[in-house]
Amino acid sequence: MIVKIATLALWGLEGFGVTVEAFFSYGSPEVNIIGLPDLAVKESMNRVQAALRSMGCPVPGGKITVNLAPADRKKQGSGFDLPILLALLANSLLKNVDLSGKCFFGEVGLDGSLRGGPGALCRALAASELGVRELFVPGENAAECSVVEGLTVYGADSAAQIVDHLTGAALLAPTLPDPHSLTEAPCLVDLKDVKGQETAKRALEIAAAGGHNLLLVGPPGSGKSLLAKAMAGILPEMRFDEMLESTAIHSVSGNLPAGEALVRRRPFRSPHHTVSFAGLAGGGAVPQPGELSLAHNGVLFLDEVPEFEKRSLEILRQPLEDRQITITRAAWKMTFPTDFMLVCAMNPCPCGYYGSSHPCTCSKTAVEHYLAKISGPLLDRIDMRVEVPALSFEELRDSAPAESSASVRVRVERARKLAEARYQEYGVHCNGGLSGALTKKFCLTDEKGEAILKESFAALGLSARGYDRILRLARTVADLDGAELIGESHVLEAVQYRALAGKYFG
Fold this sequence. Notes:
- This protein is an alpha/beta fold.
- The protein folds into two domains: 2-177, Ribosomal Protein S5, domain 2, CATH 3.30.230.10; 191-424, P-loop containing nucleotide triphosphate hydrolases (Rossmann fold, 3-Layer(aba) Sandwich).
- Helices cover 38% and strands 17% of the residues.
- The protein is built from 22 helices and 18 strands.
- It has a five-stranded parallel sheet with strand order 11-14-17-10-18. It has a four-stranded mixed sheet with strand order 1-2-4-3. Strands 5-8-9 form a three-stranded parallel sheet, sandwiched between helices.
- Strand 8 (134-138), helix 5 (139-145) and strand 9 (152-156) form a beta-alpha-beta unit.
- The protein is elongated.
């Protein structure tokens, strides 16, 4: 006798359908799982048989062959436990149950309990595309799966609950999308709490409005880290498709809290400078997303950026341009999205006080060596380089109310909407994501602006990439002003942010 149960597997961020085929025959008790299973899948039968005994269900005897089709794609993880368990019951308790249009995944404990696993949303999206009507998952994963339209999701705490539902003994209630899952989470740092630094705050607003990369340079205690953390509070609210993308990445990496339906606020990732190359880029025997992908649709903040390994910093170059990273292993090749804003902070020298009023104890050679840790090609990909000077006593004691993140965010969202409408047919949502061809088409300047660009090109020694980035930056400044054509003042401000830290990097 052969029975078939539908389930789902993962390949990177993509889910694909798998059919669990169980063949029962007479003979000495023997179990074989075939279809390119990994070790966790091969161990499934031991967990499943113990769970069946704990549930008081019949355990089939004789020879059992379980095939995971298609047999030419690798299967990994413990999510195949539940469909295998149901396949073993298909010629006994579930003999007369119609399982068409139903799909199952989840890890089964020895007592029959169900445990959630990574990548549930990716599987649910694949189930919807495959035409699955009902999806049965562990209770921990039900919330994130419920956001997929056209799919009825049932969450259960044990395999026995699913068996009872299928036989009609006790029906499960479908998990409905939580309306609060679309409500944005609060931001921890508000710009009104940041003293002074009006130039840096303006730079943050422009960076957020255009999706531009930003470097903050200044002495210790000037507020660089606080400014970077406030960036999350002025970015536009996430679109639903962005929520799904970010949730899928965090789900696959195991970073989505149990019971959480969606990533609601743009990610803000701040890895320590000791992070490994694989931790930043992604990797492992079976490639997993790294910090670059976990920051997708949000911000990647690198504090004390010269302290990061040179190899780790240089890996940023290609993802910043292509908005994705491909990780290749002997048997795996996976591509993860990396469309993030890069925000870096650094001291100007090892002691931190070069160029400030505080005496610097570093030699000229030490300063040059320290600044050289940021390579020219990487620096060229950072649109804005902003000096964050030490605060004066008067600025620290100033009690006048500063502008809040909420009011800045209104201007940022207005500028973003202008950009989205302009690039609607090209699939681009902000000026920072423009290609060279689109930059030439949409970043048009008046005569005075063109003259300043020509002068700046020679004075700053701009590359072609640097020239394009100044144009995109000027386009964002113009959008914040509501101007259709890039004018002289817009170009001047863009050039200022490109050259402001010139005393450090030349």
